[in-house]
Amino acid sequence: MSSTGDRYGMTKISACVLAAALLAATALVWPEPAMADDVQDARQLVEKARWAFENFMADKDLGPGVRSLVKRAKGVLIYPQVLKGAFIWGISGGSGAMLAYDNKTGKWGGPAFYTIGEASFGLQIGGEASEVILVALTDRGVASLLSTSAKLGADVGIAVGPVGAGAEAATANLSADIVSYSRSKGLYAGISLEGAVVAVRGGLNKAYYGKEVTPTAILVQHEVTNPQAAGLIGAVSKAAGK
Description:
Helix content is about 40%, strand content about 25%. With about 240 residues, the protein is α+β, with helices and mostly antiparallel strands. The chain has one domain (about 35-240). Strands 1, 2, 3, 4, 5, 6, 7, 8 and 9 form a 9-stranded mixed β-sheet that branches.
């Protein structure tokens, strides 16, 4: 009887030890898929940003104006997909990748990751989603984007870029800190970004570079790089001619 009781007691202890071990293992393993998802999301966002940028360059109405501005830009923030009717704080509006130009090295660097959000951007034509490019023309424009968050039109000046015939010449007279362009299903979307909030996606920055890192560390101090961004950097460098 005593032997049976001992075996029963040992069985209970073993079961408890096993359960504790399983819980500990689950606790250790559980965060990994989230990080893996962020890494994959960041990599895909960089590729989508390259495709979106190349779409702008190939657009006969938008391309000349965007290219003219990029040639004198200090930073370019590309959102491959900004959803209509879903502009709320966080990633629901859209996520983008930003590159910055370094005058000292003569090279583009990055990317750093951002969100954009607002209650409504007033799409002037139909479309479920738009590609959006923000071109920072001044040091103030870049500095505002390096902060934790910036409200366009309030914290920094923004203007909608000219399109169509004469767009390239018209860009010479633009004095805004940031100029925006958008396209929906291959058409000029006419989005006003006044009041939109641009904020840093720290989770994607950490996942992409393998450690906590700020946009300033990425874009200004060049503390980290990722070879996977070569395609995006190459596309912007080619358009800028530098």
